[in-house]
Structure to design on (334 residues):
């Protein structure tokens, strides 16, 4: 019998859990506040540092998604490294503060893992959204959450965007994802949604602690939804006002396969508009409230199986060897 090869990865010693990146997505706001209280009461120290961050305090105070511009689109390389200005939108200034706190993005000094907490008005259950379909840490945590939360639909969404162009807060860490959970209206908090988010964060931290302690996690297959495209609402050519809503047969059916000629929109005059794509795809973020301004009625994804290897934490000797190889590579480049 062939022995499964184990991938050895560095310890995750610094983790950030962020809420309030969008100030009206309240599950993350209240959860981070609660975790901050619990952290202050905890007396024992642990080898892993967990930072609790309230990302957009001004927007939280006003219970708004953002003040000037969407903070969760302000973490590209160009924005973080562009010229500074006192006249810049508040969220651009705040993104650089967060990058200084948790990054710098792409550097060895960046925190090991960033989990950013979000709510959606779409019927998506609990989703992990990440920029990589080969980050074994993120994918193993995903599978662990699926196993620990059998009564909650847990899915992994992959946005195929380069690290330089990745735009959200979770991209600042060496590893990271957003936890997106719904449905929940913006500006309110639902107990069941809050509880699912709390459990998800607890299980994520439990997995990281087990990994850091030396546990080996077996490999296997996980399902990944890779985003293919966004679809906008039908619009009036002159006014740009929308002329249709999501069709009743599609509403709330996130991750249910959408076939060509299935109902997609219903115009305000009552006509059914059908999906004209060439292949069946999986819709998500259906009728997300915050995406009206972005011109997105829904997003479409392909589902596939990704094989993940067994993983364990590097020993101190393996870490030292990896560091020496890294230094040698840097000297060769110089």
């Amino acid at each position: 019998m062939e022995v499964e090869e184990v991938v050895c990865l560095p310890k995750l010693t610094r983790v950030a859990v962020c809420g309030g990146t969008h100030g009206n997505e309240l599950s993350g706001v209240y959860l981070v506040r609660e975790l901050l209280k619990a952290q202050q009461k905890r007396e024992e120290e642990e080898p892993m540092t967990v930072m609790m961050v309230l990302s957009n305090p001004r927007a939280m105070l006003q219970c708004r998604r953002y003040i000037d511009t969407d903070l969760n689109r302000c973490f590209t390389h160009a924005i973080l490294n562009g010229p500074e200005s006192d006249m810049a939108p508040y969220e651009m200034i705040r993104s650089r503060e967060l990058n200084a706190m948790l990054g710098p993005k792409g550097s060895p000094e960046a925190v090991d893992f960033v989990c950013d907490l979000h709510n959606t008005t779409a019927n998506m259950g609990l989703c992990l959204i990440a920029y990589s379909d080969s980050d074994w840490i993120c994918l193993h945590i995903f599978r662990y959450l699926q196993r620990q939360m059998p009564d909650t639909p847990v899915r992994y969404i992959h946005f195929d965007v380069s690290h330089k162009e990745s735009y959200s807060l979770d991209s600042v860490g060496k590893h990271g994802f957003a936890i997106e959970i719904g449905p929940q209206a913006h500006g309110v908090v639902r107990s069941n949604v809050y509880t699912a988010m709390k459990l998800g964060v607890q299980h994520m931290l439990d997995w990281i602690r087990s990994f850091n302690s030396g546990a080996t996690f077996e490999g296997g297959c996980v399902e990944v939804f890779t985003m293919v495209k966004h679809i906008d609402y039908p619009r009036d050519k002159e006014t740009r006002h929308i002329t249709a809503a999501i069709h009743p047969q599609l509403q709330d059916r996130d991750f249910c396969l959408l076939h060509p000629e299935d109902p997609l929109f219903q115009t305000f005059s009552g006509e059914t508009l059908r999906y004209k794509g060439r292949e069946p795809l999986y819709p998500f973020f259906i009728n997300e409230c915050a995406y009206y301004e972005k011109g997105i009625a829904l997003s479409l994804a392909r589902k596939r199986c990704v094989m993940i290897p067994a993983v364990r934490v590097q020993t101190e000797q393996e870490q030292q060897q990896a560091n020496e190889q890294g230094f040698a590579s840097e000297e060769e480049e110089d």
